[in-house]
Amino acid sequence: MKVLVAYLSRTGNTRKVAEAIAGEIEVDKDVKKFNEIESLDAYNLAFIGFPIERFGPAKEAVQFLAMKAIGKKVALFITHAAPEELPHLATWMEKCRQAAMEAELLGVFNCRGDLARQVRESMLKSEDPQLRAWGEASKPMGSPDEARLERARAFAKEVLEKI
Ligand SMILES: Cc1cc2nc3c(=O)[nH]c(=O)nc-3n(C[C@H](O)[C@H](O)[C@H](O)COP(=O)(O)O)c2cc1C
Fold first, then answer.
1. Is the beta carbon of 81 within 6 A of some atom in ligand 1?
2. Confidence category of residue 123, pLDDT binned at 50, 70, 90
3. Which of 17, 20, 58, 88 could form a disulfide with 53 if both were Cys (CB 3.0 to 4.6 A apart)?
4. Tens digits of per-residue pLDDT, 82-114?
5. What is the dihedral sign for C-alpha 124, 127, 133, 134?
6. Rounded to the nearest whole angstrom, what is the distance from the C-alpha of residue 7 to the centroid of ligand 1?
7. 150 alpha carbon – ligand 1 mean position (Å)
């Protein structure tokens, strides 16, 4: 059995979660960025991680899932700057599930990941009032913290037990 951990991470949050998940995989594994991956054919399972951007999955993630995940066993891990209890999150997660609708989806994990300082500053200057509001609301909390990484490890175990 071979497992892939594939991720897109601009400021390091999703990468931290990817590393936590990879740490739980005891079989043959690869950990790669999206742009290093040609195909998922060599893998029995792929954990696929990316950030929420503009209230849905990052564009590259939508493309990656549409082009590479068709018919494959996948589990998604997603980071976002919003608190986990934010009601909008359910809609964003649904968009992520939709992006993976052609795959065999074994699970979805999400957790908060701080907005990087430079991203927050650019959001505060955005023309888009929703993004400005986000910048204002997203104070750094040290996420993903150890408790969230531990939840990611538990998620990885649960998914691995399914195959
Ligand atoms: C252009 C852009 C748009 C974003 N939009 C959202 C958003 O709509 N909701 C949210 O909760 N976080 C949003 N974020 C924050 C990221 O999802 C969050 O910081 C994530 O953990 C970043 O992951 P990374 O460090 O792996 O790139 C946005 C970040 C960027 C750069």
1. yes
2. confident
3. 58
4. 899 999 999 999 999 999 999 999 999 999 999
5. negative
6. 14
7. 21
